[in-house]
Structure prediction request, 170 residues.
Amino acid sequence: MRRLLDALYMSAAWLAALFMIGVLLMVLLSIVSRLFHFYVPGTDAYAGYATAGAGFLALAHTLKRGEHIRVTLIIGRLQGSARRALELWSLSIAVLLAGLFAFYAARLAWQSHLFNDISTSSDATPLWIPQISMVIGTLVLLIALIDEWVLEWRGLRRPAAAQAGDAPHE
Prediction:
């Protein structure tokens, strides 16, 4: 199961990297098209879609690598069962919020598809298509947070300070 989850997080990270390459390509295409006086519609919109996709798809991998910003003012002073209880409470809230985020992201994409909602820019892209990356990213983040919650519950989760820069849980 661990290998499958780590592969999921890594796949989302690689997909985020491909989206970043897409941003680069759209920006370069926009620059080249201006230099040679031709117009390619939608380059700004597609760069925006790719930027959003990269951000959402990288969330789970960033979490699992301990790279998310954590405010440890209170939890850093606790030890033992008090710290574990606060970690579990925090992760429970995070799972709840990520679940809501994933649900509403999926609902938005579904409604965009139902209502044939299209981009207002010159590309006229159906919005559910770029919204899929948001849905996938939030779902993978939800899975990663549930994974962290289970690891904490079982006492297998490493502290965030020990995770920073390390590989995901072995």
Observations:
- The chain has one domain: 2-163.
- Confidence is low (pLDDT under 50) at residues 161-170.
- DSSP finds six helices and no strands in the chain.
- The two ends are 11 Å apart (CA to CA).
